[in-house]
Amino acid sequence: MTTKPSAIEIHHDGVTIPVSRDGQGRPLVLCPGLNSTQADLHELAELLRRDYDVVTFDLRGHGLASAADRYSFEAFLGDLGAVMAELGNRGLPAAPVLVGYSLGADLAVHYGAEHPGTVAGLVLIDGANPVPEPFITEAVLPEFRAMWEDLAAQREAERADTARQVSLTAQDILDLNLEIDVIRSEILDRYKRIDRPISMIMSTSMAGDSGEGHAPRFNRIWRAGVARLVREHPHIATTWLDADHRLVFTHAPEIAQIIRSAEGPAGQATS
Q: Which tens digits make up the pLDDT trace of 28-72?
């Protein structure tokens, strides 16, 4: 079935969340991550629309969504929940596949654990990783703070492209990354509560392929987290791409094909 392109706005918790829907086939919800917008994920969404009825949206403070007084994991999870609730009210023909990138993957795991039976499966792109130790330590804090200040300044300079703007400050981003470290240390318990197929698409060099600086440690932690997850949950299908954390932008065709393969022909879930 082909859907007519549609755009709606969801008002909840004092923010407005823009939602776009287009494509054909099984419903699929694409959740962006921290510092990414639905406009940033445009290439992947367009590739998936050949086989899926794709829903994209912006988290609060991102893209065309309104800014908020607070930014937290729970607040972003509420945004995803509001989108899923609206889709449920509109009577989807089948439960959607929930695809999340980076922070969006963590949101997808938490949503799936808290709402059993509402999704057909999860596809997690370089996120929701039960890392064995935190990324951000006191030693790297000043460097990360400077990096995020530069990123916030860059985003501010790009404000003319409203669809890709991010309203979060460097302090917001720092606080969220510290919170995400804690959430990922406890995420294994969430996986235990999900009874739907899970596929992971992970980068081999999350922090880049430099042999200097913090990259080797970050990459080691990233790989160790995935190894830990599949030991405890061997049913989770994992695909590694030779890429860094930008893989959703640099390897969109490969990711789209992996998602199709995981779901089977024409977007039908495999058993």
A: 999 999 999 999 999 999 999 999 999 999 999 999 999 999 899
Neighbours of 237 (CB within 10 A): 16
Tell whether 173 is covered by a domain. Answer: no
Q: Mark out the alpha helices in 115-198 (DSSP H runs).
A: 141-157, 170-185, 188-191
Find where tokens 């694409």 sit: 30
Q: Which is nearest to 42 in space by CA: 101, 122, 120?
A: 101
Give the number of domains in the chain: 1
Cα distances from 112 to residues 37, 134, 198, 210, 224, in angstroms, run: 21, 24, 10, 35, 23
Q: Name the residue range of residue 254's domain.
A: 2-133+181-267
124: domain CATH number?
A: 3.40.50.1820
| pTM tops 0.85, yes or no | yes
Tell me if 169 is assigned to some domain. no
- Which residues, other chains included, contact 234 with Cβ-Cβ below 8 Å and sequence gap of 6+? none
